[in-house]
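Incident review: delayed structure delivery

Summary: a single-chain prediction request sat in the queue longer than the usual turnaround. Root cause was a stuck worker, restarted by the on-call engineer. No data loss occurred. The affected request and its eventual output are reproduced below so the record is complete for anyone auditing the incident later.

Affected input:
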Amino acid sequence: MEILALILAIAASIFAGRFLFRFFFEDQEDFSECLRFSLTPDLFSLFKGQLFEDLARSTKFGLYLLMTFLPGLFTYLLFAGHLRN
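Output delivered after worker restart:
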């Protein structure tokens, strides 16, 4: 039963990620920019004068990851029996 719950959780996360992608990002280039800013240390962005853009895009990317991860987590917990009374 755990394997089925894991497979369903991965499927739910992939579906959520593909569905939410168009709401969070304009295109693949916007996603790449958010990923680049998320991986760049804030100190480097501060010296380049891009700190606020870095914070905004890092937050956007983090929210996207969270909103993609949560449906998978709840699906796993539901089907693995951890959310039952």
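Verification: The chain has a mean pLDDT of 92.
Action items: add queue-age alerting; document worker restart procedure.
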